[in-house]
Amino acid sequence: MPDRLHPRGTRVKPKKRDTGAKRPDKRGSTLLLILLLTASFLLIHAPWATAATITGYTPIFRAGHDTTGTLQIAIRRFRQNGLPRLLIVNPATLATATAKESDLDFGKPVDSATLKATPYLRALDRHTSPPYHLQNDGARHADQPVDGAFLTVDMCPSVRPFEREFFAAVGRLPQGKGGPVPVAVAMTGRWLEQHPKELAWLKEQATDGRLAITWVNHSFNHPYDPRVPLERTFLLTPGTDLEREVLATEVLLLENGLTPSPYFRFPGLVADGTLIRKLRELGLIPLGADAWLAKGETPEKGSFILVHGNGNEPPGIKKALTLFTSGHLHLLPLARAFTTSP
Ligand SMILES: [Zn+2]
């Protein structure tokens, strides 16, 4: 397993070569010291530094109540800059957030029947139950009638330029009530690490109110070998550790100030019963698709539309843009596939 899965900070950057430049004089050293002190002050106090260090990232599954008395399920425990925090899922809305560990009250008992009846647990149970299919298992369509479809955009590792224009076009789509356009971005750790500028641009679309992004986990490494059968590639590649693939991407999202959602898209939509059951234990709902546009599938109401935003599948992007210009595609946030509330 490549060592990129180890917590960040353990990787050793190659040392810059000594250029043999002339030594700084005394005034230069003082200036350098001031610069260093300023830089370390900024690193400690700047707001963008608060997301920086995640350690001890561990899966848990514990129901509790937040400070407003709302039922929440903690699915991860970790330390952020040394402080104990949790990743929580609101089981009624499937919204995720991070919270101080001390803000969750685990003392009040939660009835297991109540918990099982929540939209989150119902979706989790329904979409991780047998029979298991090698391809396209999990949720492929809304669980109830809805007046729109769900756009999911996969960001598998790629060296091609990403589909900036496509994301911009999605952001310009007219929405019933105005506001940001919902889109689920299925992110791999590798793409995220290799495209900091593109990620910053995507984040900007969210902060500027053009896109409402649900960050779906698409594994860290997204292994793939076209020469072997499906049973032995993607996350079924021998030696692949699903938990590490899942958690490393979540850590990276959090370190970049993004909140992981309770959804997972298997690379290639390929999985077996063992992987699906492990995903269930990690509290994540697998997402398939019933409208993979590049494969000629056509979306209808409730469809999970799949395109690639990493530049690897232009026909799907072209088809999506045609659909958008027809004006008949109303996009919904992913949670609406599993909940009745908006
Ligand atoms: Zn992929």
Question: How do the strands and helices of this protein lay out in sequence?
Answer:
Layout: H1 26-45, E1 54-65, E2 71-80, E3 83-89, E4 96-100, H2 112-116, H3 119-126, E5 150-155, H4 164-171, E6 181-187, H5 189-194, H6 196-207, E7 211-217, H7 242-255, E8 260-264, H8 273-281, E9 285-286, E10 291-292, E11 304-308, H9 314-326
Parallel strand pairs: 5-6, 5-11, 6-7, 7-8, 8-9, 10-11
Antiparallel strand pairs: 1-2, 2-3, 3-4
The structure holds zinc ion (ZN).
Zinc ion binds at residues 154, 156, 218, 222, 267.
Task: List key phrases describing it.
342 residues, alpha/beta, TIM Barrel, 2 domains, seven-stranded parallel β-sheet, four-stranded antiparallel β-sheet, 9 helices, 11 strands, 28% helix, globular, disordered N terminus, binds zinc ion
CATH superfamily of the largest domain: Glycoside hydrolase/deacetylase
Structural class: alpha/beta
Mean pLDDT, all residues: 88
Query: Into which percentage range does the β-strand content fall?
Result: 15-25%
The hetero molecules present are:
zinc ion
CATH topology of the largest domain: TIM Barrel
Sequence of strands across the biggest β-sheet? 9-8-7-6-5-11-10
CATH domain class of the largest domain: Alpha Beta
Integer tally of domains: 2
Series of H and E elements: HEEEEHHEHEHHEHEHEEEH
Radius of gyration (CA) equals: 22 Å
Number of helices: 9
Q: What would CATH call the architecture of the largest domain?
A: Alpha-Beta Barrel
Please bin the fraction of helical residues.
25-40%
